[in-house]
Specification:
3 helices; two-stranded antiparallel sheet; mainly alpha; 102 residues
């Protein structure tokens, strides 16, 4: 599944390339008239369905990223404080706030 903006840009570019190819095929194979309009209407319907699918994938990816970022933030907040003492040793201190976050 696509995740990044670059992934979605690739999908949009591929869809645009497909649409242009199909448009050229329709123009080359039919003359002006009702048949051409029907084929263009079908092409538009297919393109619309594809765009809707891409938007659903994008919404799902955004939701997953939000959940992941929230989880990372909660993990960071729940870590004990790390203090370096004057003698060079490191001590970890848990406060009420870090305990609540955990």
């Amino acid at each position: 599944h696509p995740i990044t903006n670059n992934d979605f840009e690739i999908l949009y570019n591929e869809l645009d390339t497909w649409r242009r190819q199909e448009t050229a095929k329709i123009k080359a194979s039919t003359g002006p008239g009702i048949e051409r309009k029907k084929l263009f209407a079908a092409l538009l319907a297919n393109e619309t369905k594809s765009l809707q699918s891409i938007q659903k994938l994008k919404a799902a990816a955004q939701k997953d990223q939000y959940v992941e970022k929230t989880q990372k933030l909660l993990e960071l907040m729940s870590k004990p404080y790390r203090w370096q003492l004057s003698n060079g040793t490191v001590t970890y201190v848990q406060t009420q706030a870090t305990n609540k976050a955990a």
